[in-house]
Each structure stands twice: as C-alpha cells, then as structure tokens.
Specification:
alpha/beta, Rossmann fold, UDP-galactose 4-epimerase, domain 1, 12 helices, 14 strands
Length: about 325
C-alpha cells in the first residue's frame, strides 16, 4: 500500500491535490502537512500535521514513522513574494528541496514530485511555442531557484536513482483557493474582484500573454505523471505543460459575457517585467508523447466554472 506525504498542503496546489490523492489512495494513506493550519476540508478528511520543511529532523521522523513511499513537495515562496525577500526565498526554496532529496536517497522513497515553473525561462527564451529544450536564463529569484532545482532532481536521479518527477507549471487558476503571491495571480484575483466589485485594477498590461492551467487539469497532469511507467519518461528535469494561453484583455472579455458591466483598468507593477520575461505559450509535445498529457478546459469553459463557483462562495 502506498503512503503519501504532501508538504505544503495549504497552498493553491496542495489543498486540491491532497483531496484528489485521498480519493485515489484512501484518506488515511495521504498525510497532509504545512507550516500553517490546513483548511477544514483537508484537516477534516484525513491526517494533518504542522511541519516546517526546513526542520529536517521532524521531516525524517514523519517519513519513517508513517512509512511514507511517495512525497509531493509543494512548499515554496512564489515569484512575486520571492522578489521582495530574495535571500530568504532562495534559502527556503532550495534548502527544502535538498532536505527532501537527501531523505529520499537515504530512505529509498519510491517517488518524489517537485513542481518547477515557466519561471525557469527568461527574456532570451523564445516566447512563442517555447520548446522543451531551449535557452534558459531566468532573471528572477524564483526562476533561478526552479532552474537550479531542475538540475538537482536530474542529478539525484542519475547519480542515486531517486525517482523524482516534475512539471513546469504555468499560471494556475482555481476557485477553491485565492491568490498566493505569484505573477500570474491576476487570473484568479480578477474573478473575485469582478463578482465582488464589478471592477479590477490589473497589475499586468492588457496584452501580457501568458500560459495558464485550470487547477483540475494541473492536478490530473500531476497524478498522471506520477502514475506513469518510469520507462516512458524520456527526461528527468521537468516537463513543459501549456494549458491555455491568453492575456488580461481576453480574460476580461470572457468575464463580461457573465458580468456585462465589469470594468478592468491596468496599472502594471514590478510583476510586469517578470511576465515579460516568461513564455507567452508553451510547446508541451514531449509530455503528450511520453505520458499522454491532456487538457479538459479551454478559456470559455474555465471562465464559466470560475464565475459559477465563486458566486456560490461569495453570494
């Protein structure tokens, strides 16, 4: 029987991934952890423990005591917040990964998932149809840490046989958890603002094309990759995933189909430079070939679900 540890279960990905894993593997077989309390749905459906991933001793204790076989390491400081605290963010993002990799090696864990990001790309990367293998010169703390992490997980696989798997997530969109300090978070904030106030001031310009994924597609891709036969995986750094490509103007137009008097204004901040250094759309053909990546949501379908579900929460 697989025993799974989710590190960072209170974050945007972690809260929904934990619940989906519990549906598949059983509530008691998925241990959720975070440095802060989990929401009622996560803490009420299965085991939860407070864990600072920088506390190597406690992490090892949980891994051994619970006989963990799979780890999903999701704890990180995201792009926008990392630029405000660069040294602390580098330390947290990198040292936490090394803790997990070292314990994975020592305890012979079966599989580890660690998320990378489109932040690994930079201003010299081709912006459109960004290839799996290309120039990677990130100019943000978050991107630098993710690129370094990709090299480390590949090293641990090649050197020690640690089975680490990874996706380069684009922006993630969910109605269950609000934004958490990322450059693509406007695509979540805009829905809440539209429903609450019928207006939104966007911190990116109207033509800032970026790749995004609806959270259901991201969770499915994550689990599909982890369940894929190892022999099918042709790379051990991180897979490109694309999702949907759009900009704030296009998203606002989609929202106006449901809220006709919605108004958007633009006041780009420091995150505009970050967005400008990232891909506008991604080539994910390697993931599709290796393990069958698929998407269920396009922009209209995603927007319809977001409007409907956030209205249920707020009204």
């Amino acid at each position: 029987m697989e025993k799974i540890l989710v590190i960072g279960c209170s974050g945007q990905i972690g809260s929904e991934l934990t619940l989906e894993l519990r549906k598949i593997y059983g509530n008691t077989n998925v241990i959720a952890t975070d440095i802060r309390p989990a929401n009622a749905e996560v803490s009420g459906s299965g085991p939860f423990e407070i864990l600072d991933v920088m506390d190597t001793a406690k992490l090892q204790l949980i891994l051994e005591h619970e006989r963990i076989t799979h780890v999903y390491h999701l704890a990180a400081i995201l792009s926008g917040n990392a630029e405000k605290r660069p040294l602390a963010s580098w330390d947290i993002n990198m040292r936490s990964l090394m803790n997990v990799l070292e314990l994975g090696r020592e305890l012979k864990l079966k599989k580890i998932f660690w998320p990378s990001s489109i932040a690994v790309f930079g201003p010299t990367t081709p912006r459109y149809n960004t290839p799996q293998f290309t120039v990677m010169e990130p100019n943000t703390v978050y991107g630098i840490s993710k690129l370094a992490g990709e090299r480390w997980i590949e090293y641990y696989y090649n050197k020690y046989g640690v089975d680490v798997r990874s996706l380069r997530y684009p922006g993630l969109i969910s109605y269950k958890t609000e934004a958490g300090g990322g450059t693509t978070d406007y695509a979540v904030e805009i829905f809440y603002a539209a429903i609450r106030k019928k207006k939104y001031e966007c911190f990116l310009g109207p033509e800032s094309d970026l790749p995004m994924m609806f959270m259901s597609d991201a969770i499915k891709a994550t689990i599909d990759l982890m369940e894929a036969d190892a022999s099918k995986l042709s790379l051990r750094s991180s897979y490109n995933v694309a999702g949907i490509c759009f900009n704030p103007r296009q998203l606002a137009d989609e929202i106006k189909k449901y809220i006709p008097d919605f108004e958007i204004t633009y006041k780009p901040d420091f995150r505009q430079a970050i967005a400008d250094s990232w891909p506008a759309c991604i080539d994910d053909s390697v993931a599709k070939k290796d393990w069958g990546l698929v998407y269920n949501y396009d922009l209209p379908k995603m927007a319809e679900v977001m409007i409907r579900e956030i209205r249920k929460k707020l009204l």
